[in-house]
Amino acid sequence: MASTDRVVLAYSGGVDTTACIPYLRHEMGCSYIVAMAADLGQGDELEALREKALLAGADESIVVDAKDRFVRDYGFRSVKANALYDGQYPLSSALGRPLIGDLLVETAHAYDCGAVAHGCTGKGNDQVRLDLTVALLDSSLRILAPAREWKFSRADTIAYSEKHGIAPHVTKEKPWAIDLNVLGRNVEAGLIEDLTWEPTEEVWSLTRPVEETPDTPEYVKIGFAEGVPVTLDGAPLAPRELIARLNTLGGRHGIGRIDMLENRVVGVKSRELYEAPGMLLLIQAHRELEDLVLPADVLAHKKPLETAYAKVVYDGLWHGPLRAALDAFMDSTQQYVSGEITLRLFKSRATIASRVAERAMYQHELVTYGSDCTFNQASAEGFIDIFGLPSRVWNQVNG
Ligand code: ARG
């Protein structure tokens, strides 16, 4: 079994994870440290990130480009389930954590490490997601979380880093914390914690304020194959490219801002801001397509499972049995979810402009009031008689 002195650290390049490197070596007894930065599209300069970890004392430093995998295997999976946590949040940050956990485990195996580490604090969701992902994939790995045990203030962390020869590049700090990836952007903490504070424009970056959106609407046609987004305006696109274009397009029209109170796994409520135009457009279009091709009873049963799905993802139980069972249900329904939905983007709103599916359950000759109608109206009277029977009986019996 690999030694637990050998550790893979999930590295972001921030002040905290950088301080984790000397902390793991000097306070937690690690002798070999691999810094693993997962590139999910946070827009960092990757070579600089890699070198930063080495300068902080890591023995190895790797950057894994996980953007395609992230969108394809995590983001688009979640779209099949129309997953919105607390009815609003398309899980853009949450979905990244099982992937980072997966990469930690894969890297630990590749580098013969018996431990993994991360820089999450003890108050957030991310520690839950990372710990659970690792524990469910390989329970023999030891999990180290320096920032959960050190009692450093920001100034302490900087002083500790300096003591170990790292001069943290502390730029003038933003009065909030940002988490960015290809699926969306999250802003929390600092000023956001004041519930009476209305976000000013500099909080947002992917979306325009409605006042500055174009005065003419724009249309985009999203094509799905078995529940997976595959084309925009008829052109096949790789997952990462597809979501990037929708983010740009939606953002330009001021779509995708969320300001919500969120119920964290660890029991506290927190206020969170998100920008996720692409994910929200995909879910809206996908829902519409499902309405067109799936029968009412399947749709009705899918709905509560979508809520369950969002919670499982949010809670970090990606590798648990419930997500697997829910995915089996989702995949079974998605075989029929192929077609094209056109959205009209205008002034912070997307509306449905057109729906097309080869296997649509919408049948014009059944629903039309025209003379070509094939619906048998003669059957209606008997249907209503029996359909209303239990209610009539109840009313008779109970007055
Ligand atoms: N509150 C959001 C969530 O739990 C965002 C977390 C972002 N993580 C971060 N370290 N800033 O999904």
Automatic annotation (TrEMBL):
SUPFAM superfamilies reported for this sequence:
Adenine nucleotide alpha hydrolases-like (SSF52402), Argininosuccinate synthetase, C-terminal domain (SSF69864)
Location comes to: Cytoplasm
Question: Mind listing the GO molecular function terms for this protein?
Answer: argininosuccinate synthase activity
Pathway listed for it is: Amino-acid biosynthesis; L-arginine biosynthesis; L-arginine from L-ornithine and carbamoyl phosphate: step 2/3
Where L-aspartate binds, per the record, is at: 121, 125-126
Binding positions (L-citrulline): 89, 125, 129, 262, 274
Record domain Arginosuccinate synthase C-terminal: where: 176-393
Q: Which reaction does it catalyse?
A: L-citrulline + L-aspartate + ATP = 2-(N(omega)-L-arginino)succinate + AMP + diphosphate + H(+)
Q: Where does ATP bind?
A: 10-18, 38, 119
Pfam assignment, any one: Arginosuc_syn_C
Principal localization reads: cytoplasm
Tell whether Zinc is among the UniProt keywords.
no
Domain Arginosuccinate synthase-like N-terminal: residue ranges:
6-166
Give UniProt keywords alphabetically. Answer: Amino-acid biosynthesis, Arginine biosynthesis, ATP-binding, Cytoplasm, Ligase, Nucleotide-binding
Q: Which InterPro entries does UniProt cross-reference here?
A: Arginosuc_syn_C (IPR048268), Arginosuc_syn_N (IPR048267), Arginosuc_synth (IPR001518), Arginosuc_synth_CS (IPR018223), Arginosuc_synth_type_1_subfam (IPR023434), AS_cat/multimer_dom_body (IPR024074), Rossmann-like_a/b/a_fold (IPR014729)
| Record-listed E.C. numbers | 6.3.4.5
- According to its UniProt record, which protein family does this protein belong to? Belongs to the argininosuccinate synthase family. Type 1 subfamily.
Describe the subunit structure: Homotetramer.
Write down what this protein is called. Argininosuccinate synthase
Species: Streptomyces flavidovirens
- Taxonomic lineage of the native organism: Bacteria, Bacillati, Actinomycetota, Actinomycetes, Kitasatosporales
